[in-house]
Design a protein that fits this description.
Layout (H helix, E strand, L loop, with lengths): L4 H6 L6 H18 L8 H16 L3 H12 L8 E4 L4 E3 H5 L1 E8 L2 E9 L4 H5 L6 E5 L2 E2 L7 E3 L3 E7 L5 E7 L1 E4 L2 E4 L5 E5 L4 E6 L8 H13 L5 E5 L10 H8 L5 E7 L7 H4 L4 E3 L9 H13 L4 E4 L12 E5 L6 H11 L4 E4 L7 E9 L2 E12 L14 E2 L4 H5 L4 H19 L1
Parallel strand pairs: 13-14, 14-18, 16-17, 18-19, 19-22
Antiparallel strand pairs: 1-21, 2-7, 3-4, 4-5, 5-6, 5-8, 8-9, 10-11, 12-13, 15-17, 15-21, 20-21
Helix pairs in contact: 2-3, 3-4, 7-8, 8-11
Length: 434
Amino acid sequence: MTMSSAEEAVMPVPLESRERRAVLENVLAALQKRFYSPEKLNGDWLAAVERHKVSIEAASTTDEFERAMSDLLAELRTSHIGFFHNSARRASSRAALSAAYLADDTRYGKRWIFQDVHSGGAASAAGIEPGDILLTVNGQEISPPEHPVFSMGRQTGVEIVGSDDQRRLLTVDVARPKGKKLHFIEPTLVEARQLTERIGYVKIAMFPGIVGVEVANEISNGVVKLGAAENLIIDLRGNTGGGIGALRVMSLLTPDRIPVGFALDRRRVTANLESEKESFWRFSQIPPSTKSLWRLALQFAPALMMKKPIVLQTEGLGVQPFQGKIVLLVDRHTASAAEMIVAFARENKLATVIGEKTAGRLLSATSVKVGKGFRLALPTGAYYTWKGSILEGTPIEPDEAVEFDWHQRRLGRDKQLERAIDHFEFARARKSAD
């Protein structure tokens, strides 16, 4: 597929050496001013800057420049950081396909194997399933550690090996053009169904939107659909987070209003944090519709203008039949706002966590212009649970560890879900025996 004249017009032109140097200096200045953890910008970081400076300034193409800058930023070993041009038309599989994968040995060598494939997303729509082995993207072989990237707004050919061990070429619609912008094909946000007479199941793919009114309503509707389920499995596998919509899940775990946590930039971290947090503003109600967002904006405008921290607090939705009998399913791709849920449940003993340890990626972030059409995405604040834990770089271990078994998944077995169901069956058997 050829590029349109509009696309060609926004493609970045190669920079001169002095321009690349200026962009680098702007990136370093932005990090010094806003990076959430200034102690990381120490001697090791300065040495890394010197090591990478030659390749950054010598980059002959825009792609080489982006890669060289990204290699430098990787030295900070933190999530939520990146370097890209405003005209960027590529995305990772997690964003573009609503799918995530892991690396393992196969009969085709070391390959990426799809682990989480969200219903309704681009990968699912193309026929990709968990356990499928990825061989090529647009005819190019892809193997770890190289990650595939996908052109936005275009069809991409991917070759996979399915559960029948047959190679097949699939076509993926990565993104939908809409006006002048490109929008990813959003997966089915919430799936709810009855697994057995007593066990309800809710899967949440992501938490889009800053406030998350839509996903919060879908979660509540899904729970209503389950009726009086006395046990509940909440599936957060492959959920890479998002916004405040995650608060609705936490609010279903408990009938009470309980503080969850808050984000702090580096200026707000003080020795008196434990006593100061009691005075922080509290957000404890997702509005029922987007029409109410203006009231929310007015309510919290003073705190936002003064850059005061805001504590998330559960909504006090009342008693639910499944409270105290909840399993959270997680894996290595469970991150960000989804990890907030897991940490909250763990701190307050509200659920059993089953699966793999989580990603350990939970920071507040922003992006800033650094010149010549480039932007730097950087973490500006760390998330603190109410009891003081910092989750960034600290994956949450499950109560019951069950690794993703892609061989079994190709046979149609979901061992993590099976363990969650068994958890309730064992609990019921013990109760009957007592």
